[in-house]
Amino acid sequence: MSALYAASAVLSAFLLFLIQPMTGKTLLPEFGGAAGVWTTSMLFFQVMLLAGYLYAHLLTTRLAGRAQILLHSGLLLASLLVFLGGVPSPRAHTPGGEPISGILLLLIRTVGLPYFLLATTSPLLQAWFSGAGVPYRLFAISNAASLAGLLAYPFLIEPSMSVDMQWKAWGVGYAVFALLATAASRFAAAQRRPPLETDWREAALWTSLAAVPCALWLAVAHHMSQNMAPLPLLWVVPLSLYLISFIVTFESDRWYSPLLFRWLMPLAFAALLLGVRFRGWSHGIVLPMVAICAGLFLCCVFCHGELAQRRPGAGQLTGFYVVVAFGGALGGLLVSVVAPLLFRDFWELPLITVACFLLALHCLAGLNSWRVYLRLALVGTAAFVFATRFESSGSVKERNFYGVLEVREGGDGAGRWRGMLHGGILHGSQFLAAPLRRVATTYYGDQTGVAMELSRPSPGPRRIGAVGLGIGVIATYLRPGDHLRFYEINPQVVDMARKYFTFLEDARGTVEIAIGDARLTMQAEPAQNYDILIVDAFSGDAIPTHLLTREAFQLYLRHLKPGGVLAVHVTNRFLRLSPQVMDAAGSLGRKATLVRSGADPQRRIEAANWVVIKGDAAVVARRVWTDQFSDLLSALR
Q: pLDDT, tens digit, for every residue of 316-342?
């Protein structure tokens, strides 16, 4: 009996958190590789976790023992019949409409039922078998299994299995879980339990202590993904720290000491401030990553330690879990939906840090005056936002699902310029003086690989395609009669390029912009017969990997005329992408050359790496990235 119970609990927790990075990786190509895919997916998982915990609580407080077992066993067996052909992957469904609602509806249709049933397992089995051991310690063990699932994905599963194979293996694991859980329920000592008995103040404190760390790890992960690729590994790190804090605080009381954390919490806030202050991370990645992760971990241990010390008896654990899950869902809602609607910058991270500071004052210092809280919240938020902002006087910021865009000015006299940034990455700049307004800057200077191809003589007008608009610097290379077609997924980029820059307006040829994901748009249109096709799809320092797979390059080549040129921008501070691009080109029998160019600050030109693909070459035998397989971990510098 105990072995069946333990196996069911551990396997359910493992599968519960394995599916999260797996789903995110599957969805990224369908929604343009934006970091918002991850926060929206996490919101879905937190809401479904709340639904599962609420189901477990209602089941154990409203039904007699035998009725509980019969109903839950029936649902488990029914889910096996529904997914007899395998759990449907979100990849098999075409998204549409507004991204956040599209992602949520897609996940509900595909993985909603199995995830819901997995979420019910931990509280339900703890309630049924609470006489077999210490139930809250079993909560720590479940979180340890969840951590194992998270770590297994980037280090074992992603590098060795295709996406389809991952979903098939997960479906087999789910079938084993459903059978184990059904068998274990036969031995359950189920009984009807009393409803949760606590006052609203205590419930509100539980909710706050659950919401703050959940919102904090999501905000940290989103912050990190704006400046690096939104790959599973980056989300595994903060989520792992979040889970570890649950494990150490609920496993034993000796791991959390309020007296010690009176000294540690100021260090946590200072570490978060340091990590956020280096938003562009131009001084390196190690220091800000270590600082922000250390601050996150200390804050999570504090919140979860306080939760563990305030937990009710085992007889009311399902109600306690519902409140904790509600707090987690609330934190996810604030970061995923509310913050992008209210804020033009990533202010949620400093705001959540201030909220954690106020909780620390309440729990560790006994501060209870709401007037003092209000004053501290206002002053703390203003100070934190001021401290974390760069010198951006006169800048304009806009935010949507794809991140924050900022238009900033600098220089003086004839050298005054205006640039657009995404995260800490400059996406293009333009001199404001009329004589220099049409000078190509940033990654498109006259010595770059793309500029050399665009400057070559041609017998007549050219058709040019460009994946990624930026501010439209490429348009400076147009000649009379040329036609340039941009593919841009973010409508806000188009608006800002037209409103604050004149490259598109000053172009000598014709400029057209197609709104939407480049791959989806190009797949739906006939061959464009481009003389040159340019792929420059930055999102901060993040690269949408679905634009760098073998299938993507097959699509690009279909749109080139015979003898056409494909130029791919691979400049990146954290990822070595040129080998993947060159291997993909070689696998299709095309010759690829890496062209490096240096920086020229006076001309506003950045160092750039372009891979230029033209002509035939021998096919390479190395394994290349495909829609089914990509291993960004191996590309990290």
A: 788 888 999 999 999 988 888 888 888
pLDDT value at 540 more than 60? no
Which H or E element spans position 363?
Answer: helix 348-365
DSSP state at residue 254: G
Closest CA to 31 of 545, 399, 525: 545
Q: What CATH number was assigned to the domain covering residues 403-635?
A: 3.40.50.150
The residue extents of the domains of the chain are: 1-197, 198-311+343-390, 403-635
Domain 1-197, CATH:
1.20.1250
3-state secondary structure of 590: strand
- Of 221, 246, 248, 245, nearest in space to 235 by CA: 221
Q: How confident is the model at residue 133 (pLDDT cuts 50, 70, 90)?
A: very low
Q: What is the pLDDT of residues 276-300, one digit of tens each?
A: 766 544 455 677 788 889 999 999 9
* pTM flag (> 0.85): no
- Non-local CB neighbours of 422 within 8 Å, separated by 6+ positions: 226, 403, 404, 405, 406, 538, 539, 540
Q: Which amino acid is at 616?
A: D
Angstrom distances, CA of residue 294 to CA of 148, 275, 297: 20, 9, 5
Distance between alpha carbon 143 and the CA centroid of its chain, in Å? Answer: 21
Helix (H) or strand (E) holding 293: helix 286-309
Map 91-153 to HEC letters.
Answer: HHCCCCCCHHHHHHHHHHHHCHHHHHHHHHHHHHHHHHCHHHCCHHHHHHHHHHHHHHHHHHH
Reduced to 3 states (helix: H, G, I; strand: E, B; else coil), residue 244 is helix
Phi and psi dihedrals of 465, rounded to 5? -115, 150
At 394, the pLDDT band (50, 70, 90 cuts) reads low
Structure tokens at 493: 């980029």
